[in-house]
Amino acid sequence: MFYDIYIDLCRKAGLSPSAAAEKIGRSRTAVAKWKKGTMPSGATLNAFARLFEVSVDYLLGNEQKEKPSGKAEGREVTFDDFTYALHNETDELTEENKQKLLEMAKFFKEQQDKKKNQ
Question: How far apart are CA 28 and CA 20, in angstroms?
């Protein structure tokens, strides 16, 4: 399963499997092993997750949706990008800080609405 996902991500990134492996310091031999079903190490999975801007769970086939990059890269940030980023960044916040974040969001919304109505 990893290898199929890896190949798809390489294709989307415009990289050959060997070139992607080389970007993180792995060899063609490693790619051949993955093709035969050997799982990459945790460090390799983490490096690929950073390279392709996906989660390790996605690389392992445990998530269906690729992680949005969070980088606008010439496009508007969509609601899904924002929601995903907000969820992941707030997982470990205290309830008090989550409440403060919600208050900030409401404040920004009110400011935006005021500008629209002027």
Answer: 10
